[in-house]
Design goal:
Strand order of the largest sheet: 3-4-5-6-7-8-9-10
Distance between the termini: 31 Å
Helix content: 40-55%
CATH class: Alpha Beta
Number of helices: 13
Low-confidence stretches: none
Order of helices and strands: EEEHEHEHEHHEHEHHEHHHEHH
Mean pLDDT: 95
Strand content: 5-15%
CATH superfamily: NADP-dependent oxidoreductase domain
Shape: globular
Protein name: Aldo/keto reductase
Pfam families: Aldo_ket_red
CATH architecture: Alpha-Beta Barrel
Length: 330
């Protein structure tokens, strides 16, 4: 597995990591045995970067990851977590006292004295624009509570504010159906030496090509209850693409993969490979619900470079079917 420098953290991480939202909640239930098997398959496939958050399963994901790392202390895992989404999203809730409490809880869940990387978890724009936010994170580094800090953001504007504040890493949605960061975030991140962590690379599974308009998701799955943005930013669910539009575009994407993609590669693997080939990307963090999915995701790193014909066809697909729905929003 190829590794790249994660911004100014001084750490090299695998270009394909593992997102563990699925291991906590909001994607249907994943039991402890399946969670551990997923983590083990990722690690065995060369993954060294794991992303979690204090809100995933109200700490369940962090505890899974912390227990797994404790059982594998010498295998070079770098664990990023996120904080801030366990309270109502108002700027006045982002206080030094809250930061300290969130940090203490995550360190306890993960079983460490110092967190590898803490990211603000899609906070209000005002929080990212406030210099006091970044000063407090620097104080936490000085106190030995965190080693590095960054932000997970929804919009390109928020990404720029985080970079101006001093974020060492950015986590942002980028995929074949969400391309705006290619223009407005990645060039500046590369210039500033900021690590870029890509989430939602498969557009909540659309780019696997497995869904139809008749697919039914569980009641507790965000692809059901957040389809209209009722619970959190709609851009997190199917990348903000209307579901029926996304299914049709994913069908065409699957056809393009068959015509122009590497032999024996799945659409999901090609979608992941596409992300890793974008200049400025450090790592991409697909989720997985089981060991087979985790191993297949990691195998995307071994694919040959995508062809110019495929890249051109994918850009055309975006412009024809997707751009009008997402490009102006995030």
């Amino acid at each position: 597995m190829e590794s790249r420098p994660l911004g100014s953290t001084g750490t090299q991480v695998s270009i394909i990591g593992l997102g563990t939202w699925q291991l906590g909640a909001d994607w249907g239930e994943v039991d402890e045995a399946a969670a551990r098997a997923t983590l083990d398959a990722s690690l065995s496939s060369g993954v060294t970067f794991i992303d979690t958050a204090d809100v995933y399963g109200d700490g369940r994901s962090e505890r899974f990851v912390g227990s797994f790392r404790a059982d594998n202390p010498d295998r070079g895992l770098f664990v990023a977590t996120k904080m801030g989404r366990r309270v109502e999203q108002r700027p006045e809730n982002y206080t030094p006292e809250a930061f300290a409490a969130w940090n203490e809880r995550s360190r306890r869940n993960l079983g460490v004295e110092c967190l590898d990387l803490v990211q603000l978890h899609c906070p209000p724009t005002e929080v990212l624009a406030d210099p006091a936010t970044w000063d407090e994170l620097r104080r936490m580094v000085e106190a030995g509570l965190i080693a590095n800090f960054g932000a997970s953001v929804e919009t390109c504007e928020q990404a720029r504010l985080a970079m101006e504040g001093g974020a060492q890493t950015l986590q942002i949605i980028l995929n074949i159906f969400r391309r705006k960061p290619l223009e407005e975030v990645l060039p500046e991140a590369a210039e500033r030496g900021v690590g870029v962590i890509v989430r939602v690379p498969l557009a909540s599974g659309l780019l696997s090509g497995k869904y139809t308009t008749d697919t039914v998701f569980a009641a507790g799955d965000h692809r059901n209850y957040n389809r209209e943005g009722a619970a959190f930013d709609i851009g997190e669910t199917f990348s903000g693409v209307p579901y029926e539009v996304g299914v049709a575009a994913a069908s065409e994407f699957t056809r393009l993969c068959s015509n122009y993609g590497p032999q024996n590669a799945t659409p999901a693997q090609i979608a992941l490979k596409w992300v890793t080939e974008q200049v400025g990307v450090t790592t991409v963090i697909p989720g997985a619900r089981n060991a087979d999915q985790a191993a297949a995701n990691a195998a995307a790193a071994t694919l040959p470079p995508l062809s110019a014909d495929l890249n051109a066809a994918l850009e055309d697909l975006y412009n024809r079917m997707i751009r009008e729905h997402v490009h102006g929003r995030w």
